[in-house]
Amino acid sequence: MGKFIIANWKMNMTNAGAKDFLDEFRPQTKNTVVICPPFTALTTVGAADGFAVGAQNMHYAENGAYTGEVSAEMLVELGVGYVLVGHSERRTKFVETDEFVINKAKAAISNEIVPVVCVGETKEEYQSGKTKDILSRQLSGLGQLDGEFIVAYEPVWAIGTGLVPTMEEIADIHVFIRGITKAPILYGGSVTDKNAGEIMAIPNVDGVLVGGAALCPNKFTGIINAAN
Ligand code: 13P
Question: Which residue has a Cα nearest atom 9 of ligand 1?
Answer without folding.
Answer: 211
